[in-house]
Design brief:
The protein is about 60% helix and about 20% strand. By secondary structure, it is α+β, with helices and mostly antiparallel strands.
């Protein structure tokens, strides 16, 4: 069974005695983190999509210029 040791000066933080990891036990902060992470991942996905679109536009422009 996992034992959590309180982190001095931080009521929401506990240390996992097995892995020595710090765990935040505040569910609200966790939900905020996950929401922020999801937004960031969507932003990265959108940026990658835009990069792909720009690459396609560039290659089309090169084809047009080569025909002139």
């Amino acid at each position: 069974m996992i034992e959590y040791i309180p982190v001095e000066g931080h009521s929401n933080l506990k240390r996992d005695s097995h892995s020595n990891a710090i765990v935040n036990t505040n569910a609200f902060e966790y939900d905020q983190y996950m929401s922020h992470r999801e937004r960031k991942l969507k932003e990265i996905e959108e940026i990658e999509h835009l990069k792909s679109e720009v690459g396609e536009i560039k290659s089309m422009m090169k084809m047009i210029l080569d025909k002139l």
